[in-house]
Amino acid sequence: MTATPVSVAGMAHQVQVTFDAADPARLAEFWALALGYVAQPPPAGFDSWERFAERIGVPPERAGDMAAVIDPDGAGPRIFIQRVPEGKTAKNRVHLDIQLTGGDRGAHAWRRVTEHVDTLVAAGARRLWETDEPTGRAIVLADPEGNEFCVT
């Protein structure tokens, strides 16, 4: 039996990347820095996410359970971060690659990578290892909650 792909008028679908977290606000701040993103503004008609949460009936103690950052140019996916009770326990099966070099293997491009890595480490990331494979060179890090990602 073969699955038939379902398409909406041949259009691609939007993608959101979701992270589980103990501290959504802190992780959102980290990923905004890592990706050059900004905090997602509250919906139209609301001056804050807290007021929006109150309006839709979210209990005050749960108002900080979510955060989101977005690409200010609208090109990249939204990053949504939700509080979960359990911590990270295993290696990611999916990870993000922050691409700064555009495939350029020169010293100037690599300097951009190492400078960004230094910034992210100062913001709470942990440097795990560096790799130089035929497919490309990368530094592997873990965000403040242990999610692995690469800077290339």
Automatic annotation (TrEMBL):
Domain Glyoxalase-like: 16-152
UniProt-listed Gene3D superfamilies: 2,3-Dihydroxybiphenyl 1,2-Dioxygenase, domain 1 (3.10.180.10)
PANTHER family: CONSERVED PROTEIN (PTHR35908:SF1), HYPOTHETICAL FUSION PROTEIN (PTHR35908)
Protein name (record): Glyoxalase
